[in-house]
Design a protein that fits this description.
alpha+beta; Pnp Oxidase, Chain A; 7-stranded antiparallel sheet; 6-stranded antiparallel sheet
Length: 448
């Protein structure tokens, strides 16, 4: 009998499994299963969602057969199982529900595409299905990634050392994502900061994408990022494309039956992502942000990634907390500046929705927009160029929370948006807690 741990790639959810059951009269029924969860050497768990016929059969006859497939070799394996119990709460149920809810919110099926129970089965026998695919030169599965643990541990040590040496939030985020790409072979990564004033997350830094996505927002509970932020639990998804197709097929069927569903939320980052992992950055009971890794490889992230990178996420969260509490320094005298070029930029402030447009195109909204309008207005009225974080925190008109205001992250976002949309106007850090407002154009300010 094949040992169940040898089939770990089959339990990643890349290839849908199937379960065959029979009722008391011996009438069979076969249903597809999106994911078979490995529990231990003798048990697996299946998610019960829409299995009305399967559930009735199991109630009459607890024995079933589950077919799983290796996502690389496409070899099939048969698990003879016996139903033990159904759990509707607890750690296992929460873990399985977290995965399902991330897909449900992404496809606009929150509250409809949901987990009813975690069904636990005892595995009585495991057998290789011969002849399912053409024979290979060797019947053995691809070798495990042995011998790389030391390199991975060394990578974690190097990354941890780099993070601990950073002196400001912008440098920390840059070092964090660059090191992930260099040391852990990650090609696509992003960091989203949690804004406690409106309960949303906004993208601050990214690597590997065509567009930086700076300023992109995700609501709590929406998709992978929002689900991880809301639950504050790490989540790894494999075979994302298969799960989305499965969820959308159910969605289409329910729409044909007249169900009213929410609009689908666009998936941030890679449009063809097959693997995703999101890690919450938490200090105490406070959520600081979410780190997201993506890949077009459905088996890009493994169990060791969770253990290693969760340690990194914890250290990064502490570093963000430390850098957010550093004191400001006193300003230096401002030097004289040469005359500006004749080019003109029109900045428009819309107080109703607190947004700023530049030359008729959206730039930024919310607290970063209020900060920008303050800088523009004061510079236009007095010619002042240097500003400090302390004075921004003391300005009640900006609406910053009195505690843990995330001012540094808002300035990073504002700086990136200006680089992308209006490079003639810049916010340039000069020392800890201070920055200069620079421009290579004339400014025209208007309020509507």
């Amino acid at each position: 009998m094949t040992a169940l741990p040898e089939l770990m790639p089959c339990f990643q959810g890349v290839v849908p499994a199937a379960i065959a059951t029979c009722d008391a009269a011996g009438v069979p029924n076969v249903a597809y299963v999106s994911h078979v969860y490995y529990l231990d050497e003798g048990h697996v768990a299946l998610s019960c969602q829409f299995f009305n016929k399967t559930r009735r059969n199991i109630d009459q006859n607890p024995y079933a057969c589950v077919k799983v497939m290796h996502p690389v070799t496409l070899e099939a394996w048969r698990l003879d199982v016996k139903f033990i119990r159904a759990e509707t709460s607890g750690p296992l149920f929460d873990e399985m529900e977290l995965r399902i809810q991330a897909i449900a919110t992404h496809t606009g099926m929150k509250g409809i595409f949901r987990l009813l129970s975690s069904d636990i089965y005892e595995v009585l026998d495991v057998s290789h299905v011969r002849g399912y695919v053409l024979p290979r030169a060797s019947e053995e599965l691809p070798p495990a990634r042995l011998g790389e643990t030391r390199a991975e541990l060394r990578g974690l040590q190097v990354l941890s050392d780099r993070v601990s040496r950073t002196e400001d939030l912008a440098e920390l985020l840059e070092v964090l994502l660059n090191s992930l790409c260099e040391l852990f072979r990650v090609r696509h990564a992003m960091f989203l900061m949690h804004d406690e004033t409106d309960g949303r997350l906004y993208a601050l830094e990214s690597r590997g994408y065509e567009n930086s996505g700076a300023g992109a927002e995700v609501a709590m509970g929406e998709g992978l990022v929002g689900t991880v932020a809301k639950t504050r639990r790490l989540l790894r998804l494999s075979g994302v494309g298969e799960m989305l197709r499965y969820a959308r097929a159910v969605r289409n069927e329910m729409q044909r039956d007249g169900a009213s569903l929410h609009a689908e939320i666009p998936l941030p980052g890679l449009c063809d992502a097959q693997s995703q992992m999101a890690l919450p950055l938490v200090v105490g009971d406070r959520l600081l942000g979410v780190l997201v890794l993506e890949s077009v490889d459905p088996l890009a992230f493994e169990d060791w990634h969770e253990a290693y990178l969760n340690l990194l996420a914890n250290q990064a969260a502490l570093a963000i907390e430390r850098l957010s509490e550093q004191p400001d320094v006193e300003p230096a005298p401002e030097p004289d500046r040469p005359p500006l070029a004749a080019r003109k930029r029109v900045f428009t402030w819309y107080p109703k929705d607190e947004s700023v447009f530049v030359d008729g195109e959206y730039l930024v909204r919310g607290v970063p927009a209020r900060i920008l309008w303050k800088l523009l207005s004061e510079h236009d009225a007095t010619g002042r160029r240097e500003f400090g974080n302390r004075e921004l925190r003391m300005d009640e008109s900006l609406g910053l929370p009195p505690y843990k205001d995330n001012l540094e992250s808002r300035l990073i976002l504002l700086r990136k948006r200006l680089v992308e949309r209006c490079p003639d106007v810049r916010i340039v850090p000069v020392k800890r807690g201070r920055f200069t407002f620079e421009r290579d154009c004339e400014l025209l300010l208007e309020s509507r």
